[in-house]
Amino acid sequence: MISFWRKIACSDKNYTLSVTFNFSVILNLPVEFLIRYMEDYNISRGKHFYTIGLSYKKADAEVRGHFSLDDVGKRNLLEQAKAEGIDELLITSTCNRTEIYGFAQHPFQLIKLLCEHTHGTVEEFEKVAYVYKNKEAISHMFRVGTGLDSQILGDFEIISQLKSAFNQSKDIGVSNPFLERLVNAVIQTSKRIKNETDISSGATSVSFASVQYILKNYENPADQNILLFGTGKIGRNTCENLVKHTKNHKITLINRTKEKAEKIAGKFELTVKDYADLQAEIRQADILIVATGAQTPTITKELIYNKKDLLILDLSIPKNVSDEVQDLPGVSVIHLDHLSQMTDETLERRKAAIPQAKQIISEMEAEFNTWLETRKFAPTIKALKKKLKDMKDAEVDFQRRKIENFNDRQAEILGDRIIQKIMKQFANHLRGDSNSTDESLELIQKVFQLEEPVKK
């Protein structure tokens, strides 16, 4: 696969056209359509829209950890991409997946960037990765952003991460109208699915799954000493679920930045300890929940000297609990991949809502693609309108000189109304017959001798 990517990346024009032809056969679309697809939409300059990434479906937690990116890593990748002329992309990196959505001449450009800014290799990526192109890439974002592709069905935490990813791209200057419109469309689709289906019923998420595990394995969860290490988004959600479902207020919070932990603790009247007290607090704990975002393990065997049994739930990607910890006597380590496999009545109820959710996605995705089609023929419609107006103005001027007492006002009104009706007919035809849009645009340009739309 890698050699194939490299072959395309360094191919000549004829080879590129042959690849485009093969792709057009797969999608049952005219070759000319795909060649001009992105250009006519004025979305990108000779590039295609790709999604490259890996997820829990084929990559285990260790491999996902090799390709994970923190905020600094994402920023560095985006800035390098911008410097290399790849200036239209966004990145998501969560516990379940790492993905890059963006425009490139070839996906290997994006894969190379990802591998340069993570601990993963191209060869490792090839074994577990996926690459989607153009409309398939668009569809993939809709599935991911609406929770249908989440490790726990209906986990909508990804949608806020998509928002943050776009905002980061916008701040760095690597966003464009296409990405903004796509992300907004996915956000609106997610809202509709939450409001119109039961796929978001209950409180199932990675954070809730950890609480669910505690509820199922401890007869009196309210009596357990629980230590939560890490108060980022997953940590905050976990804390809220702990208080709500276990009724336990003997929860201690520790975070490297103590102020963040104090803000959450104040809401629930919980205890906060300094980071320096971590080892001592672990010794007192029955349950340790690790929700840190470090790139290397934060919990090692040197920190643990418990005289009683200790359950450790690691909700981090990459793993923040060292593998050697699970060999300590009396210590049980459960990672989020195991937690995510848990099913209950809530998940079964959510599965029943999948067909309705898919229908909503289909509607919203079709609406987005209609917008793309509109962008495609808008330059020609604008040029046609200008041409008709020039023809009208010339004829009115001719008749003004030829006819005595010529009524300019009525002539203008009549001419404008005729132009409006003609434009409406053309626009309706182009919107209603997407299969022949390219041929229709070419015919309009030829008949009315329109100039080629300027490619930006």
What does this protein look like?
With 456 residues, the chain is an alpha/beta fold. The protein has three domains: 2-196, Glutamyl-tRNA reductase, N-terminal domain (Beta Polymerase, domain 2); 206-343, NAD(P)-binding Rossmann-like Domain (Rossmann fold, 3-Layer(aba) Sandwich); 377-447, no CATH class. The protein has 19 helices and ten strands. The strands form two sheets. The chain has a six-stranded parallel beta sheet, with helices on both faces. It has a four-stranded antiparallel beta sheet with strand order 2-3-1-4, sandwiched between helices. Strand 5 (226-229), helix 12 and strand 6 form a beta-alpha-beta unit. Helix 2 packs across helix 3 (31-40), helix 9 (157-172) packs antiparallel against helix 10 (177-196) and helix 10 (177-196) packs across helix 17. The longest helix has 49 residues, at 354-402. It starts with a helix and ends in a 9-residue tail after the last helix. The model is unreliable at 1-45 (pLDDT under 50). Residues 356-450 form the Tetrapyrrole biosynthesis glutamyl-tRNA reductase dimerisation domain. Catalyzes the NADPH-dependent reduction of glutamyl-tRNA(Glu) to glutamate 1-semialdehyde (GSA). One of its GO terms (biological process) is protoporphyrinogen IX biosynthetic process from glutamate.
Write down the Rg: 28 Å
Q: According to CATH, what is the class of the largest domain?
A: Alpha Beta
The end-to-end span amounts to 33 Å
Q: Return residue spans where pLDDT drops below 50 for at least 5 consecutive residues.
A: 1-45
How many DSSP-defined strands?
10
Principal-axes geometry comes out as elongated
Order of helices and strands: HHHEHHEEHHEHHHHEHEHEHEEEHHHHH
- Structural class label: alpha/beta
Number of helices: 19
What's the architecture of the largest domain in CATH terms? 2-Layer Sandwich
Strands of the biggest beta sheet: in what spatial order? 7-6-5-8-9-10
Beta-sheet strand percentage? 5-15%
What's the domain count?
3
Quick one: biggest sheet? 6 strands, parallel
Mean pLDDT rating: 83
Estimate percent helicity. 55-70%
CATH homologous superfamily of the largest domain - what is it? Answer: Glutamyl-tRNA reductase, N-terminal domain
- Provide the CATH topology of the largest domain: Beta Polymerase, domain 2
